[in-house]
Structure formats: structure tokens, C-alpha cells
Design goal:
By secondary structure, this protein is α/β, with parallel strands linked by helices. It has 16 helices and 17 strands. About 2% of the residues have low confidence.
Length: 458
């Protein structure tokens, strides 16, 4: 019977090297923790061969010991010790790497900083922790000479951090754009394909387990903003700047605009976009119109995808699962393999650690959203459209808004009204806002304009 040569304990290194394990302490046994443990145990021989040594989970910290034993069963055999004290794990002298999967930014921050102080490497999939406290954590790791690895924190199964840090290390990256929240992408797919409104599509996502009971971080764009700040840090060598990310979610998106966009040849996606703009950066998360033929417009359901444009490699696309226990565990294990191979590499050589050498790199200024240029989709609900439409177009032109396409469409709820739908040329957001403010008080223009950015990402 054929045996994969990688399953041989002598492949890729000596038996002596493989007998010195990388000893792991795991904090948390929820979705990410259990997925990580499952991948490590199922593929132990392959992982040892590829990394040059065994990777062994020695201790696991959980809140409820009995529940963990009942749920995990045989997976906790083979020398894995359970405890209910996470601090004892991060301080244990026989642990080389602490894997943090508990989530949140309070206890997780304290435990990660203590692990670093104890001279232990850290692997985490906690994007909120690094987006909000990354500067402090990376600085502590650099000072202590240990590594903080976080492939699972961005885009789950897609190895985008490694691609930015290694595969594209010879490139000047000009921009990246991605679908980096699986929940929102599932909702938008349901709105487009099944004609659902936002509330109905959210309920479906919750029913199928793609959305939490409290989906605010996902649908308001916060989760994507956390991830974008980490992507930008790696792409541009700047500290994470989560607070500077302009963030709009899909929670105010109306089904009529998804329908109208499709009628005009566009799909709507929640994108995270980071772009060089002279000496500054654009950092923004928002619903975006994309041409239906664009690669990112073809990413449906809970899948994620990230497009990167750089000077030498050109445009590259990375695609994969945006959620899942073992999918995230796969990324965590990849970080552990990386540590097993190259933990001796200085922390300062790992992007974005370079950004935290005192005086070496300062945060790049981030453009205010009003100064960011793009094309726009605009919907205005109007009465007496034969009169109001020419007047609106004239006023917008006077304010510097050039229209590349116009449609007057039936209003979905009121047959006496019309929807004036415009696609503009590229302009600053504050120019458009000023122009719309000049017409929105007119008696024939009803309610607030619905505005979405339009990108081609060519």
C-alpha cells in the first residue's frame, strides 16, 4: 500500500531533531481551539515532517473542565492536560508557545503580554486584540525577542499574512482590497440571489450559523476594519491603525439598491480597501459596487477573497473559506509550523514588527473619508420627476458632480414616485456631499440620498 513519504518520521530531518517537540499551551477550547487541536492531532505525522519537529499540545486551559472532557473525549488523550487556570499555562516552564483562542481584548491582552514577558512565542487568531492593542503587543514581543504570529486573525484559511510577508516581500504594494467578513458576504449573496431584504437575509444567516445572535461587529463593518488594519500594517509597514479606518457596514443597505445595482451591471460587496495615496493611506470599509464581471464580484456565500496590486507581481488574488473551526485551526497550525522551523529568526525581521522599532517607522497619515476619491452610486427618490430630474442634474453639475450614467426607475413602494439613480465620475466624497446637501431640502426630493462607492479595482 502506498505511503506518503511525508508521513515517515525521518523525512525532512533527523530522528533526533524530530524528537525535540515544540511544546504548546492552548488557551480556550471553543471553535478555534478545538479546530486547532483536531488538525494537530489528525495530521501529527505530516506536520512533524514538514516542520522538522513534533508539535505537541501539552496543556489546555478551559473555563469548565467537566464540559470540556465530555465534549472533546478522546481528543484530550495522549498527554494533553486540562486545567482551568490560563495563567498557569502562560507561566509554565515547559511551554514554548502559547496559542490564544479565548477572544476579546481584556483577558486575552493580559495573558498574551504575560506570555511574552515569560519569553514565550504567541500565536493568536484574535483580530480585535491585535487591531486595538497591536502596537503594545508587537513592541513587547520585539523587546523580549519572541514572535507574535496571527495568520488566523485575517481571512481564516487564506495565508495572506505569509503572502504579504514572504511571497510579495520584493514588491511595493500599491493597494489591496478584499471581502474579509464571511457573515456580511453571505447576507449580501442572499439579498442578491433571493431578493431578500437585509433583515430577512440576516435571519437566514443566523439560522444557518453564519451570524452570531448579536451580529453587530459583522454587519456594521467592525470585524472587517479590524482585519483591514492588520493587512495594511503588513502591506505598508505601518502600525495597525484601526481607529483611523473609515467604517460603514451593510446594516443600512436597502434591498432596492442591491436590485438597482444589479440592473445596472454591478454587484454589491462589503470591501476593505487599503491604498497608497502619495505619502498617505486610504483605509476604508464600506459596501461597494463592483462590475459583475470583476473577480471579487464572483465571491459568494461566506467565502473570502483578497486582491493585492503590487509593482512587480502585478495583481494577485487569494481566495478561501471565511469561517470555520478547522479552517481557522489550519491557519493557527501554519503559524506553529513556521515557529517550529524558524523561531530563531529575530522578531524585528517579521512584518509588521519593523514598524515598532522606536523612531524607525511612524504611522502613515490616513486620509479623511471626505478626501478619498472614487465614483459613486446615488439614489434620490423624487416627486414630479419630469421637472425635478432636470433640476437636480443641473444643480449637481453646478457643484462639480459629473454623471456618467442616469436611470429613472419605478419606486418599489410608491407608484407615484420615481427613483433617480446616478453613477458619477470619480470625485471627492466631500464634493458629492456638498452637492447633495444643496438638493435634499427641495420639496420634490424625498428623504436622504442613498450613496454607495463604486470601484473598478483595475
Amino acid at each position: 500500500m502506498y505511503q506518503d513519504p511525508l508521513e515517515s518520521s525521518h523525512y525532512g530531518g533527523t530522528h533526533t531533531a524530530l524528537s525535540i517537540p515544540l511544546r504548546v499551551g492552548l488557551l480556550g477550547l471553543g471553535t478555534v481551539g478545538s479546530g486547532t487541536l483536531a488538525v494537530l492531532q489528525r495530521n501529527a505525522a505530516l506536520i512533524a515532517a514538514r516542520s522538522g519537529r513534533r508539535i505537541e499540545v501539552r496543556q489546555v486551559a478551559v473555563r469548565d473542565l467537566e464540559r470540556a472532557r465530555a465534549r472533546m473525549g478522546a481528543a484530550l488523550q495522549g498527554g494533553v492536560q486540562l486545567c482551568d487556570d490560563a495563567w498557569s499555562v502562560v507561566r509554565h516552564p515547559d511551554i514554548d508557545v502559547v496559542v490564544e483562542t479565548i477572544g476579546g481584548t481584556t483577558a486575552a491582552r493580559a495573558l498574551v503580554l504575560e506570555a511574552i514577558a515569560q519569553g514565550k512565542h504567541v500565536v493568536t487568531a484574535n483580530k480585535a486584540l491585535l487591531a486595538e492593542h497591536g502596537s503594545e503587543i508587537f513592541a513587547a514581543a520585539q523587546a523580549r525577542g519572541v514572535v507574535v504570529a496571527y495568520e488566523g486573525a485575517v481571512a481564516v484559511s487564506i495565508p495572506i499574512i505569509k503572502a504579504l510577508r514572504e511571497g510579495l516581500s520584493g514588491n511595493r504594494i500599491e493597494w489591496l482590497a478584499g471581502i474579509i467578513n464571511g457573515t456580511s458576504n453571505f447576507i449580501l449573496t442572499a439579498m442578491r440571489e433571493q431578493g431578500m431584504g437585509f433583515a430577512q437575509a440576516l435571519a437566514l444567516a443566523q439560522e444557518k450559523g453564519y451570524a452570531e445572535a448579536d451580529p453587530a461587529f459583522d454587519v456594521q463593518g467592525v470585524d472587517a476594519a479590524h482585519k483591514l488594519s492588520l493587512l495594511a500594517a503588513n502591506a505598508f509597514g505601518t502600525p495597525p491603525q484601526f481607529a483611523q479606518v473609515h467604517t460603514e457596514g451593510i446594516d443600512r443597505l436597502e434591498g432596492v439598491d442591491v436590485d438597482f445595482a444589479q440592473r445596472l451591471g454591478y454587484g454589491v460587496k462589503l470591501l476593505g480597501i487599503a491604498r497608497r495615496c502619495g505619502d498617505a493611506l486610504e483605509l476604508r470599509v464600506h459596501p461597494t459596487l463592483l462590475p459583475q464581471g470583476h473577480l471579487l464580484a464572483q465571491v459568494h456565500g461566506s467565502m473570502n477573497a483578497i486582491m493585492v496590486h503590487s509593482d512587480a507581481a502585478g495583481t494577485t488574488l487569494f481566495y478561501g473559506a471565511g469561517a470555520g473551526s478547522e479552517q481557522t485551526g489550519s491557519a493557527v497550525v501554519a503559524d506553529l509550523v513556521d515557529l517550529a522551523r524558524s523561531a530563531q529568526v529575530a522578531a524585528a525581521l517579521r512584518v509588521p514588527a519593523l514598524a515598532f522599532q522606536p523612531g524607525a517607522v511612524r504611522p502613515a497619515p490616513v486620509l479623511d473619508d471626505g478626501a478619498v476619491r472614487s465614483a459613486f452610486y446615488v439614489r434620490l427618490d423624487v416627486d414630479r420627476f419630469e421637472v425635478s430630474v432636470p433640476q437636480v442634474l443641473q444643480q449637481l453639475a453646478l457643484e462639480g458632480v459629473r454623471v456618467q450614467r442616469m436611470e429613472v426607475l419605478a419606486h418599489p413602494q410608491d407608484s407615484t414616485l420615481r427613483c433617480l439613480v446616478l453613477l458619477t465620475e470619480v470625485l471627492r466624497r466631500d464634493t458629492l456631499d456638498t452637492a447633495l446637501a444643496a438638493v435634499q431640502h427641495w420639496p420634490t426630493v424625498l428623504g436622504q440620498a442613498q450613496v454607495l462607492r463604486l470601484e473598478t479595482l483595475g
